[in-house]
Design a protein that fits this description.
The chain is an alpha/beta fold. It has helices at residues 11-23, 34-44, 60-69, 87-95, 109-120, 136-145, and strands at 3-7, 27-31, 48-52, 77-82, 100-103. It is globular and about 30 Å long.
Length: 217
Amino acid sequence: MTKILLVEDDQSLREIYGIRLTAEGYEIASAGDGEAALALAVKERPDLIISDVMMPKISGFDMLDILRSTPETANIKVIMMTALSADDQKARGESLGADRFLVKSQVGIEDVVNAVHEVLNDTNGAPTTTATAPTTDNMMTQFMATPAQSPVQPVAQAQPAMPTVQVQPVAQAQPVVSAPSVSPTQPISQTQPVMPTQPVAPAQPPINNPNPFLGIV
């Protein structure tokens, strides 16, 4: 299977290109900067590299220069893509050995697919008319603006309404008070009259007998 290495620091664009080219039957590898792309190019030996120009660490032009100077990667075909449309950028890419130079704002995804077929000299997929094809910049805008679709939940079947029964308030129960047991009343005894107190005779003082012998017989 033909292998393509996508080199793009924008993850969303990498996903767009990867999905579309996978649908064409290509095996896709990807890298987010030129340094990682060089390591993958030596390891994977892709048939084609599609690379952005402006990237962190190593630019697309510097990466292309190293690819062409390395025997293991010198013959890999390269399509350069950039947001810059200046003629000197295109001339530099061609001088470094780019097989095709595309300006992102002027091409759509189908233009990229067609360029891949032409550079690889294969016939996978038919050429697509690009008059109405969205450009890469427009595709990126639509990709970011499309909200994530959540799965539609099935609507639960409505249950028939049950007739409403009016509930009568329950009267609060009164506590039962037990009557205390009453003992039969005992008759009250009649009060006895108080007897008058007899006066007590005063004590008689002792009689002093001057003669102790009186009264003795």
